[in-house]
Amino acid sequence: MDSGIRDGISPFRAAVVLGVIPGIYIGVLIGLMVAGLNFLWESPRDVIVAIFWFGVIFGAIGAVASLIVALLAALLKKSLRWTVFSVSTVVASVFIFIEGYGRCYGCHQFLDWRAPHLIYTPGRSILLTAALALGCIGVGAGIGGIVYVLWGAWRRRFVRRIAYFVLIAVIAIAISLSYLSTPGRGEHPSQASLGLKPSGGLDHVIVIVDDAATWTVFDYLLKNGSVPALRKIVENGSTGYLKTFRPTHSPQIWTTMATGRSPTRHAITGFINYAFPGMRYGIANFEIPFEWMLEYLCLKLHALGIGGARTLGPERRRVKALWNIASDLKLGVGVVNWHNTLPAEKVEGFMLSNYFYLSLSKRANECVYPADLIPEVEDMVAAAHDSSFDWVTGFSKDELPGGSAGERADLVRKVSNGDFTANLVSMHLHERFKPALMMMGLKGLDTIGHTTYWEYALLHYPQEYKLTPYLRKFTDEELIKHLGKAIDNLYILHDRFYRQWLDMLGGNDAIIIVSDHGFEMNGNQHEFGPPGVIMLYGKPFKKGYRIENASVFDIAPTVLYLLGLAVGEDMEGKILTEALDPQWLSSHPIRTIDTYETVRRKHKKIPRKVSEETLKRLKAVGYIR
Fold first, then answer.
1. How many angstroms separate the CA atoms of 280 and 50, rounded?
2. How many whole angstroms separate alpha carbon 392 and alpha carbon 621?
3. Confidence grade of residue 281 (pLDDT, cut at 50, 70, 90)
């Protein structure tokens, strides 16, 4: 049995070496990855700050895990080699578990039972978490065995040199990849005004994003005859599934639809940025690896007053959106309630930022462009505020239940009013300005899906899902009776919106209705949910056609084509020619241009701090915890 004294190192010192140092090393690599994904190389100080804080976080995790094992080894009077193996196994298992935990929804339920799930009950969540932990320990034991062998050979200079070379080489490669993964570092060749003027396009193109709209619900309502406008679109237009990407975070998908570029190019990856102390811009993209736990840890630090949450708006977007391209070419545009558009941009027309109706009283000048529209918008928002949506929830104001159930019912009422307001203002301003490109966002289906999904599933699928004692902590028969119909009712309300827009269409107009993703009604999530929906209606499109190969990347190129504009060859999607009438396609040739990115977009100012109201709203629907 070898001892720490004989090897010249104590078990606790070995624990520090095997826990803290690997933790810091992993933190450095994670910091470099996050720097590239979040364009932090635009502010080198942010790269240094991110690496420092991730090194501290993971070093602390490694320290805690290793010191606990070292203390246990000391109490059991175990050898240094046993300590080396155990510490390496535990530290590796912890880091692997964090990675796996971030991708296991059942494990999320284990941590936060306030968000009940129809499948992942507490018992099943515990079993899943335990199974994941055992698997991670198994892999960690393999890593521990490798470290055990290397520890015995560490005295050899050759082994140490190889190890140092590998560690330094990995960091050097990580730095290079992190830097190179930040796009837009060079200027694009200018092609401004060269053959880009509109030619043969439609008079008006209307784009509506109906967040989380799902064919499963639409098909059910079609059979019941509850959505006549949708039936008209299905019979006289082209419809189908819209492929999206995962995780299905709305901001990055909406921005992809508006730009034709992936999140790694447009840089809008979330609702907010988390900024460590000392950072200028912050972090929104926690996707790979450790996605869920990293975001969770950062928000916990924010709750403790360490760092802050920053807005993630158009100042962070690195490429032009459709409204920028159209405005540059003097086409009128209108944008209302689109994700990540606060503050509103200057366009050739009008723009109302996302959730403008919630922020109008506090920052009207940032919510509305041009500013002279503010009084008119305020009047419309005030008028819409008086509209009653008791029929959506099934409760009147006087009948609202107490506690969290009443809060959820009231949230359904508010988001229904928000969609009504966005549609009302959009239609009014569209009638007044008649922009060539109109883009509007509806957010309610996603929010209601997050907050009333279990009532919906228990009402519609009683043979598959039961009101268990666990679920009775969150709902009951009365709530199922009322809130179980809220999702259907909001779909019906949105169908009324569709009908209003269809009635406004002229003979040379078109409407595109899409959702960024579908929604699984068996759980409070859409991370791995079904594809979204796409509906194309108007003169250029085939009638009664089923679209097979549409994706969120195809929306921007298709809109540009319909407007008679050239399509950027650097866009990552395609024109949806499969849905176009052959005669229209032959008489309207496709034009392309290398790129619309003639000027490199830079950060103009540091994003402001996110208000507590915004954080509360994001937490209410489960976007952040």
1. 11
2. 18
3. confident
How far does Cα 214 stand from its chain's mean position?
Answer: 17
534/515 Cα distance (integer angstroms): 7
SS3 318: coil
Question: What are the φ/ψ torsions at residue 285 (nearest 5 degrees)?
Answer: -95, 105
The full 3-state SS of 549-609, as one line of letters, equals: EEEHHHHHHHHHHHCCCCEECCCCCCCCHHHECHHHHHHCCCCEECCCCCCCCCCCCCCCE
Q: Taking the CB of residue 138, how many other CB atoms lie within 10 A of it?
A: 12
Burial class (CB in 10 A: 0-12, 13-18, 19+), 175: middle
Q: Could you give the CA distance from residue 35 to residue 80 in angstroms, rounded to a whole number?
A: 38
Note whether 475 and 591 are same-domain residues: yes
Contact 350, 335 (CB under 8 A): yes
Q: Which residues face 551 on adjacent strands?
A: 243
Give the C-alpha separation, 275 to 372, whole Å. Answer: 34
Tell me the C-alpha distance between 338 and 439, whole Å: 8
- Reduced to 3 states, what is the DSSP secondary structure of residue 207? strand
- Contact, 499 vs 472, CB < 8 A? no
- Using CA atoms, how far apart are residues 99 and 247, in angstroms rounded to an integer? 15
Q: Is residue 211 domain-shared with residue 85, that is, in the same domain?
A: no
Query: Are 406 and 478 part of one and the same domain?
Result: yes
Residues 280, 281, 282, 287: is their CA dihedral positive or negative? Answer: negative
Give the pairing type, strands 238-243 and 204-210.
unpaired
Q: Which among 589, 587, 583 is positioned nearest to 575, based on CA atoms?
A: 589
- For residues 22 and 57, membership in a common domain is answered with yes
Q: Which range is most confident: 279-288, 385-394, 583-592? A: 583-592
Residue 329 lies in a domain: yes
Nearest residue to 478 (alpha-carbon basis) of 387, 408, 388 = 408
Going by C-beta distance under 8 Å and a sequence separation of 6 or more, which residues neighbour residue 93? 133, 136, 137, 139, 140, 141
Residue 65 domain boundaries: 4-180
Band the pLDDT of 554: cuts 50, 70, 90.
very high
**Whole-angstrom distance, CA of residue 385 vs CA of residue 349:** 25
User: Does 560 share its domain with 434?
Assistant: yes
Handedness of CA 615, 618, 620, 622 (dihedral sign): negative
Q: What does DSSP say about strands 532-538 and 238-243: parallel, antiparallel, or unpaired? A: antiparallel
Average pLDDT (519-525) is 68
Mean of pLDDT over the chain: 84
Helices and strands in the chain, H and E counts: 23, 13
Tokens 């990995």 correspond to what residue?
A: 170
- pLDDT number for residue 288: 46
Separation of alpha carbons 190 and 265, rounded Å: 19
Tokens encoding 153:
């050979």
Say how far apart CA 458 and CA 467 lie, in whole Å: 7
Statement: residue 279 has pLDDT above 80 = yes
173 and 254 belong to one structural domain: no
